[in-house]
Amino acid sequence: MPSSDDPTPPPQGAAPSSDGGLRKFKVVSDGLTATISLDASWVAKPFMHAVVKTTVVKLNKRANTEPVAVEYLERVEVDGEPVPLPDASTTVAQLVPVAAKQVTLTFGEAPPPQLKFVVHSGAVEFTITLDARFMRKSFVDAVVKPFVTLYNRRANLTTTWEECIEAHIDGVKREGSFRSESQKSAYHFLGRHPAHVELFFSWEAVAEAAKKRPPHQGLRFKVAMPSGADLEQKEKELVFDHRELNAADAQELARQLEEASPLKVLRRLYLTHNDIRDAGVAALARVLTREQAPELKRLHLGHNRISNEGALALATHLNPSPNLDQLFLDHNWIGEAGALALAMALEAETLVVAQLQLHANPGITPAACTRLHAFPDCNVVIDENAKELVEKQKPLFDQCEPVPLHAGFPGK
Q: Is this structure's pTM higher than 0.85?
């Protein structure tokens, strides 16, 4: 590291910059303190190279410590005040004022070997996997550009990556200017455990996503709902797969089920390949408890764009659940937080289910998989064992008459 206590100082003789050129400050990181002096030529270099990289070299020379890498940088403080994480082009002069006394660097855990998540825009979605090399690329290069290429092939359009104006990670808008933030590494932009990423290519799409939907979108025009008396006393099965139901429709369905409760004979509720999302799942969870639907055995919610929030709603509101034979949540956007919430409900025995389908939720991490497999009374199907289990239990799936198991895109 170029510093007063380093025998190899930075090159000298460069013309001073307009802000004084020289920077002299302490760098503090994980017990390491070093004083660094940078002349004008080094002040003009990228902060990640001049300060972070050289700090990483010193940190990794210490014995009996976990190695760190530039990509692990999580926080930068200048004189105790946090500053935005620099991208690859941010210079020392842009980040560290002339009068600065101390720069503190905080490094996090090593990134996972890969990130796997769903990326979507409108009705088109794809699963993207980033290895260590692509995690180091900018978010634009690693995610936006590949998605646009696939999007254009599927939608037969000519959208360009420059048209992307906003991104939401697991439903949360990324803070700061998208243009500058998206030039940071994909790992820094996405975080450790993204489950789904939504890209926006117009301000109209952003405004549409922010709208609050009306409470009811016309369920009666999409499905033939039985009468309240039939729901309570007669209907053993409701098959609403592939009906283009949205969250408002699911909320209306929940309202009608609640009015007819207790649902004394309902055993199977099929809602795969719709778009009911987290709000719809939360509404249904509240009316499908053991008290209100005591005989329910199969609840199929695959292909519905359900994220961590929806999984948490199931774990919280389906309490206690009926004694389910099957709870299908495959092909959704559930990540580590949602999977752990379901695991906690299984552990507390508020969620009782013989078979829990969670495959094709790319954001579920190995740690969450391990936690879910800890319950011998629940057969959990995740990507790592989905193929083997489907083959083993093929006769069981063959008996599930209205349940499509093929993969596909919403709205396909």
A: no
